[in-house]
Amino acid sequence: MKKEMIEDEEITEPEPETGEQASEPEPAPLPDPVPTSDTNVQPQDESVPVTGEKPVITIRGLTKSFGDHEVLRGVDLHVNKGENLVVLGKSGTGKSVLIKCLVRLEWPDSGKITILDQDLDTLNYPEMNALRLRTGFLFQNAALYDSMTVGENLSFPLRQHKKSMSKEKKDALIMEMLDNVGLADSIDQMPAKLSGGQSKRIGLARTLILRPEIMLYDEPTTGLDTGTAKEISELICKMKKKYNITSITITHDMSCARMTADRIIIMKDGIVYAEGSYKELEKSTDEWIRSFFDF
To answer: pLDDT digits over 97-119, tens only?
Structure first.
């Protein structure tokens, strides 16, 4: 598929009135080696996933530069079915660029991405859109439409992608998602009346309403107080368990990482520098790795 096909894509959904475009996730049908001196941090072995199952997401040799600035310098990773992979790294290490490449919000310069057994480089425009229907993306700011009520925000993707669904089923699905995030009473509220945590919850409900198989979370707890951030982390775990979602979470919030991660990778200088469980990495003797856990 040629890049021009994506660049010419016509956006059918309205832009949020905050001035930032809301990229509505579309639905699913129902390296430099790890330091060898540190025995607590294991090198990647992408050919042998922990579960023994074929990964849902596989990335090989991914590179991306902006001008002369190399952001990704050969990223290799996999995500297993039902797993939440947390990606840590200092600012500017390419964490958000990485997940944007998965849905072609950014185009990598080289490398291979396979999602749900499909090589992204082989997909044409309709096929790429079909794959996007199976992937949800929760942005940092939730990207709600300010001119719509909470109920209308959740109804919008159903009107776009579930046109044959009856109004009764749509209404029931909207209430189910609002119940999931504990905000059933907010259905008639406008986004401007919501707190930051409530907006994140509604953004998550709107994304999950189309039942994606994969979720990509970009800094889901950024800007929230400690208590609210904990609630969002708990909600991510709850939705993963309820819908068997495979996910990648980009975060700086170590409490979120500890609560949600099945496995963690730490990026440094555009590569995967270390990988392991929270407990394994927390015990690392590498000072740079330790810097993430000394909080």
So the answer is: 999 999 999 999 999 999 999 99
Burial class of residue 18 (count of CB atoms within 10 Å of its CB; 0-12, 13-18, 19+): middle
Tally of CB atoms within 10 A around 150: 27
Number of H helices, E strands in the chain: 10, 10
pTM (2 decimals)?
0.79
Report yes or no: 77 and 99 within 8 Å, Cβ to Cβ: no
Task: Return the half-sphere exposure (C-beta side, CA atoms, 13 A cut-off) of residue 276.
Answer: 18
Query: Is the pLDDT assigned to residue 44 strictly greater than 60?
Result: no
The answer, yes or no, to whether residue 82 has pLDDT greater than 50, is yes
Q: How far apart are CA 37 and CA 204, in angstroms?
A: 41
Give the Cα separation of 214 and 241 in Å (integer). 13
pLDDT at 41: 45
Among residues 27, 24, 26, the alpha carbon closest in space to that of 15 is found at 24
Residue 67 CA to residue 69 CA, distance in Å, equals 5
Under the banding of pLDDT at 50, 70 and 90, the label for residue 129 is: confident
- Secondary structure of residue 250 in the 3-state scheme: strand
Contact between 217 and 138 under an 8 Å Cβ cutoff? The reply is yes
Q: Where are the alpha helices (DSSP H) in 133-221?
A: 150-161, 167-180, 196-208
Query: What does CATH list as the number for 1-6+38-134+213-295?
Result: 3.40.50.300
What letter does residue 283 receive in the DSSP assignment? Answer: T
Residues in Cβ contact with 39 at an 8 Å cutoff, skipping those fewer than 6 apart:
none
Ramachandran sector of residue 52 (left: φ over 0; alpha: ψ -120 to 50; beta: rest)? left
Each domain of the chain, given as residue ranges in start order, spans 1-6+38-134+213-295, 142-211
pLDDT score recorded for residue 52? 56
Q: What is the pLDDT of residues 7-17, one digit of tens each?
A: 444 434 444 44
Inter-residue contact 41 to 275 (CB < 8 Å): yes
* Phi and psi, residue 199, nearest 5°: -60, -40
